[in-house]
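Record type: monomer structure entry
Structure origin: computed from sequence
Chain ID: A
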Amino acid sequence: MTILHLMGAPAEGGAETYFLELVRALGERGHTQAAVIRPHKEREAALAKLGVPVRLVDYAPLMRPLNRWRIERFARQVNAKTILGWMSRGAEHAPEGPWTRIGRLGGYYHMQYFKGQDFLIGNTQHIVDYIKGEGWPADRVDYIPNFATADDAPAISRATYATPEGAPLLLGMGRLHSDKAHDISLRALTRLPDAYLWIAGSGVEETALKALATELGVADRVRFLGWVSDAAALYRTADVCVFPSRVEPFGNVVIQAWAHETPVVAGASTGPKALVRNEVDALLIPLESPEALADAARRLLDDETLRRRLVAEGAARVAREFSEDAIVARWERLFEHVARSKAAWV
């Protein structure tokens, strides 16, 4: 069975990183795969390294009929049995054919983009409830969360990014977008005069965030790292992961921090509020509150017992709920279920 992935995202982000992780994990379990992606040198190289055949399309809305035709030809060429459409761009480009079509939602997209899908997956229960609330049949949607894996990369020297070895180090991960609230992390840093902040990500807010760091007088203690491929090393180097997102359907950064034994402070947006057990496996703070973020980070920096407890509970959560083996097995059962059931849904 060939699984054909449709990934039309133009930039880097959590969903795009997880797409490659799921492709890798399925490949390691013997599944034949192919992918249709938007031109993206790094993603093309990563898929080539995994031995996954790739076709490039631009996923432009005006080109949708032509793109569907191209994707259909490629699907037949690779003998696709399942087409997995990632987010709205992928799902709306999935052509009809002898294969099953599964749409994967990591957010609250307009359901018009998922017409024609045989089955939908939400990566949070709240997204699944949203899908059902939009009128989608309850027996054709399910919840499969992301998994987290711990890379064995060691911590790096803080001198790599001109940071004193003894300084408290905060880590912010994610696109440089207003949804991720890196501005809240910068404002919190003004209340932590001994701490440094590394921000790993790229995006449209880079210039504005750098200007804000200068305005706040913290630019000398902030390092903008850009998009990085060695996230595991960053988690292992940092003292605290700060994640104050305004909008966050799931919270992949939270489970990755757990997997790498880094204590987390998260904003109470939809995903983290459902994911985190406050004071048990992470600290949950109100949105739009640099004061709360600074206070929570200081607690973790000063209280080794608290850090150790949160880290242990987070690692246990990953083992119970977000392990690679368990999540990939759920995907495998889903592929089989949808293939068997499609005839009854037509």
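Annotation 1: The mean pLDDT is 95.
Annotation 2: The first strand starts at residue 2 and ends at 7.
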